[in-house]
Design brief:
4 helices, 22% strand, globular
Length: 127
Protein backbone atom coordinates (compact mmCIF):
# COMPACT_ATOMS: atom_id res chain seq x y z
CA UNK A 1 0.00 0.00 0.00
CA UNK A 2 1.28 3.47 -0.84
CA UNK A 3 1.81 5.76 2.11
CA UNK A 4 -0.50 8.80 2.08
CA UNK A 5 1.19 12.07 1.26
CA UNK A 6 1.18 14.21 4.46
CA UNK A 7 0.90 17.35 2.31
CA UNK A 8 -2.71 16.40 1.61
CA UNK A 9 -3.76 15.94 5.26
CA UNK A 10 -5.93 19.09 5.39
CA UNK A 11 -7.56 18.19 2.08
CA UNK A 12 -8.21 14.64 3.29
CA UNK A 13 -9.79 15.89 6.53
CA UNK A 14 -12.14 18.29 4.72
CA UNK A 15 -13.25 15.58 2.28
CA UNK A 16 -13.61 13.10 5.13
CA UNK A 17 -15.88 15.53 7.00
CA UNK A 18 -18.25 15.59 4.01
CA UNK A 19 -18.46 11.80 3.88
CA UNK A 20 -18.65 11.32 7.66
CA UNK A 21 -21.96 13.22 7.81
CA UNK A 22 -23.60 10.07 6.43
CA UNK A 23 -22.14 7.62 8.94
CA UNK A 24 -25.08 5.99 10.69
CA UNK A 25 -27.66 7.31 8.23
CA UNK A 26 -29.60 4.90 6.06
CA UNK A 27 -27.75 1.98 7.68
CA UNK A 28 -24.43 3.30 6.36
CA UNK A 29 -21.35 2.47 8.43
CA UNK A 30 -17.91 4.00 8.26
CA UNK A 31 -14.76 1.90 8.30
CA UNK A 32 -11.20 3.16 8.39
CA UNK A 33 -7.85 1.66 7.46
CA UNK A 34 -4.48 2.21 9.13
CA UNK A 35 -3.67 5.16 6.87
CA UNK A 36 -6.88 6.98 7.85
CA UNK A 37 -8.65 6.30 4.57
CA UNK A 38 -12.37 5.66 4.94
CA UNK A 39 -15.19 3.85 3.18
CA UNK A 40 -18.90 4.16 3.83
CA UNK A 41 -20.81 0.94 3.23
CA UNK A 42 -24.41 -0.11 3.68
CA UNK A 43 -25.74 -3.61 4.30
CA UNK A 44 -27.06 -5.78 1.50
CA UNK A 45 -30.53 -4.82 0.29
CA UNK A 46 -33.03 -6.37 -2.05
CA UNK A 47 -32.21 -3.67 -4.62
CA UNK A 48 -28.46 -4.36 -4.32
CA UNK A 49 -29.06 -8.01 -5.11
CA UNK A 50 -27.77 -9.12 -1.70
CA UNK A 51 -24.44 -7.29 -1.98
CA UNK A 52 -23.14 -4.61 0.37
CA UNK A 53 -23.76 -1.11 -0.92
CA UNK A 54 -20.57 0.89 -1.30
CA UNK A 55 -21.66 4.53 -0.92
CA UNK A 56 -18.27 6.23 -1.09
CA UNK A 57 -14.92 6.85 0.45
CA UNK A 58 -11.94 9.14 0.90
CA UNK A 59 -8.41 8.00 0.17
CA UNK A 60 -5.12 9.86 0.15
CA UNK A 61 -2.31 8.64 -2.04
CA UNK A 62 1.02 10.03 -3.19
CA UNK A 63 -0.38 12.54 -5.70
CA UNK A 64 -3.74 13.70 -4.31
CA UNK A 65 -6.68 13.07 -1.99
CA UNK A 66 -9.55 11.25 -3.71
CA UNK A 67 -13.26 11.44 -2.98
CA UNK A 68 -15.26 8.50 -4.31
CA UNK A 69 -19.03 8.88 -4.68
CA UNK A 70 -20.73 5.80 -6.10
CA UNK A 71 -24.07 7.54 -6.56
CA UNK A 72 -22.69 9.39 -9.59
CA UNK A 73 -21.56 6.08 -11.06
CA UNK A 74 -24.95 4.47 -10.47
CA UNK A 75 -26.90 7.57 -11.50
CA UNK A 76 -24.80 9.67 -13.91
CA UNK A 77 -27.65 12.16 -14.30
CA UNK A 78 -26.57 13.52 -10.89
CA UNK A 79 -23.60 15.05 -12.74
CA UNK A 80 -25.77 17.07 -15.14
CA UNK A 81 -25.63 20.23 -13.05
CA UNK A 82 -22.09 20.18 -11.66
CA UNK A 83 -19.76 23.04 -12.43
CA UNK A 84 -17.02 22.72 -15.05
CA UNK A 85 -14.50 23.23 -12.24
CA UNK A 86 -15.75 20.20 -10.32
CA UNK A 87 -16.01 18.19 -13.54
CA UNK A 88 -12.29 18.87 -14.14
CA UNK A 89 -11.54 17.14 -10.82
CA UNK A 90 -13.16 13.90 -11.98
CA UNK A 91 -11.14 10.85 -12.81
CA UNK A 92 -13.15 7.92 -14.03
CA UNK A 93 -16.86 7.74 -13.34
CA UNK A 94 -17.06 8.36 -9.60
CA UNK A 95 -13.76 9.80 -8.34
CA UNK A 96 -12.84 13.43 -7.66
CA UNK A 97 -9.17 14.28 -7.02
CA UNK A 98 -7.84 17.25 -5.05
CA UNK A 99 -4.35 18.46 -4.17
CA UNK A 100 -5.51 21.34 -1.96
CA UNK A 101 -8.53 22.52 -0.02
CA UNK A 102 -11.03 24.29 -2.28
CA UNK A 103 -13.93 25.47 -0.15
CA UNK A 104 -16.21 26.34 -3.08
CA UNK A 105 -15.72 22.96 -4.75
CA UNK A 106 -16.03 21.13 -1.43
CA UNK A 107 -19.35 22.88 -0.82
CA UNK A 108 -20.54 21.77 -4.25
CA UNK A 109 -19.27 18.24 -3.56
CA UNK A 110 -21.18 18.20 -0.26
CA UNK A 111 -24.38 19.14 -2.12
CA UNK A 112 -23.71 16.42 -4.71
CA UNK A 113 -23.15 13.90 -1.91
CA UNK A 114 -26.47 14.88 -0.34
CA UNK A 115 -28.23 14.39 -3.68
CA UNK A 116 -26.51 11.03 -4.04
CA UNK A 117 -27.59 9.96 -0.57
CA UNK A 118 -31.18 10.99 -1.27
CA UNK A 119 -31.14 9.10 -4.58
CA UNK A 120 -29.76 5.95 -2.95
CA UNK A 121 -32.59 6.14 -0.39
CA UNK A 122 -35.22 6.77 -3.06
CA UNK A 123 -33.99 3.79 -5.09
CA UNK A 124 -33.92 1.67 -1.90
CA UNK A 125 -30.21 0.95 -2.15
CA UNK A 126 -29.86 2.02 1.49
CA UNK A 127 -32.35 1.99 4.36
Amino acid sequence: MNKPNPNFAATHEKLRAIMEKYDGKGNLKLSEDKAGNIVLIGPPTKMSQGKEVWFGGVRTGKAYASYHLMAVYAFPDLLNDISPELKKRMQGKSCFNFRAVDEALFKELAQLTKKGYERFKKEKLIG
